[in-house]
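Support reply, case 0932

Customer input (verbatim):
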Amino acid sequence: MLPGIDDGAPDMAEALAMARVAVADGIMVTACTPHIYPGLYENDATGIRDAIVAFRIALAAEGIDLELVEGADTHLAPDMLQRLRAGDIPTLAGSRYFLFEPPHHIAPPRLEESVFALLTAGYVPIITHPERLTWIDGHYAIFARLVRSGAWVQVTAGSITGRFGGRPRYWAERLLDERLVHIVATDAHRACKRPPLLAEARDAVARRLGEAEALNQVRVRPQGVLDNTAPGELPPLPAIAHTAASKIGFLRRLFSSV
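Our regenerated output:
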């Protein structure tokens, strides 16, 4: 949502328009998470914080009641852990949690080793939008293993509601149904295209997993991230109900993907 520092809002007018959409949708806190992508978006903690300060001033001037916290959507790089430790990569609201974005088109080598090293160092990587990765088809099991190891998964709201098309929706629903999703987030880039809408996805999650888990994904766990609460003190992922209905649902998803 920060203007002019990555492929999100190009200017302050668009950032303010996005803020208005978010507030109207019931969003009260937004994590500003521009890309840190070596060679493309060379952002760092200092620049992101400066942009947040300017955006807060603009929000106040416009009377828009939206709280901002810092963060970044951080692409995998060899020096990621070093930069996190140095404070050059901002975690979410200064917590142990940070957004970790795998490459979109190529399954990276040693992804699980990289995530394990981050976990061992005391960080909790939140893997962003795996449902939109072009290589998830042949590597889906990796994400289940990463979740079991302690990593978190964040799915984009628009994937659940079909805004990104059928394929991301299929994988988003499968991740949800197999209880691999910790957080649903907007991943907003514009006020109209990829808008900051969360309520419709929350409702879709509630229909699949129940109201309590939908609330966990959009409010309880996100608030725990902001409070730097240990993962073990937050609601665990729900267990899969091995009922006849759930088996039928899985088969439908299986056949719809072939």
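We compared this against your earlier run and they match. Two observations from our side: The domain at 75-256 is CATH 3.20.20.140 (TIM Barrel). The chain has one domain: 75-256. Please reopen the case if you see a mismatch on your end.
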